[in-house]
């Protein structure tokens, strides 16, 4: 758009899908809180309830905030790239801090109760997701944020960054599903098969995690919903590569 002209509207359907994702995300958090509060005694630090901080932090950090960080480039379509980039990195960074609190909670809780660590499939997938997520964040900041790699290096790394961003989001949700199943088998193995309310609520949480992942995944992989480069970004890219005569800022 020309200077002073209103930005073009968002593509049809994008706002609705983003709204559904946020509704699902907030419902996820409420359902996790309801499960822990209603059936697991709530959440408290340095107490027998410390473990319960783990599922809450993981759903908030590794699912909700990570998902929202992926959506930033679709939602903030007309803001300066640098601001959008900073918000993307900030949300991922916040997700990492919250996830770290969740990991500390589970290790401290295990130590207090004499439970062994890192033997289950859930713990292996979850730790892999966290470590790779941290690495992805550090590489992303190094390549794109402070002070940024060369234009050609960034261009080479960008497809990997995008692929692993989506892959780690999927791995995080899969780890949550494994964690929910493990918790139910530990806590209510005798009654789980009788469709008790706690089992039904936790299963519903699992289905909502999948739904949130699908909606976010759909939004971030739809080609026509990608953030269009702004006129000044296209002008900047001309310094690095020659654009063909026929290309225009909107092309």
From TrEMBL:
Record keywords, A-Z: Cytoplasmic vesicle, Electron transport, Heme, Iron, Membrane, Metal-binding, Translocase, Transmembrane, Transmembrane helix, Transport
Cofactor requirement: heme b
Record localization: Cytoplasmic vesicle, Secretory vesicle, Chromaffin granule membrane
Membrane-spanning residues: 12-36, 56-76, 88-107, 127-149, 161-180, 200-220
GO MF annotations, alphabetized: metal ion binding; oxidoreductase activity
InterPro entries, A to Z: CYB561/CYBRD1-like (IPR043205), Cyt_b561/ferric_Rdtase_TM (IPR006593)
GO cellular component: chromaffin granule membrane; lysosomal membrane
Reaction catalysis annotation: monodehydro-L-ascorbate radical(out) + L-ascorbate(in) = monodehydro-L-ascorbate radical(in) + L-ascorbate(out)
Positions of the Cytochrome b561 domain: 20-221
Repeat is among the record's keywords: no
Claim: Heme is one of the keywords in the record: yes
Its membrane topology: Multi-pass membrane protein
Cited function: Transmembrane reductase that uses ascorbate as an electron donor in the cytoplasm and transfers electrons across membranes to reduce monodehydro-L-ascorbate radical in the lumen of secretory vesicles. It is therefore involved the regeneration and homeostasis within secretory vesicles of ascorbate which in turn provides reducing equivalents needed to support the activity of intravesicular enzymes.
PANTHER family noted in UniProt: CYTOCHROME B561-RELATED, TRANSMEMBRANE ASCORBATE-DEPENDENT REDUCTASE CYB561
Name of the protein in question: Transmembrane ascorbate-dependent reductase CYB561
Species of the source: Cephalopterus ornatus (Amazonian umbrellabird)
Lineage of the species this protein comes from: Eukaryota, Metazoa, Chordata, Craniata, Vertebrata
Gene: Cyb561
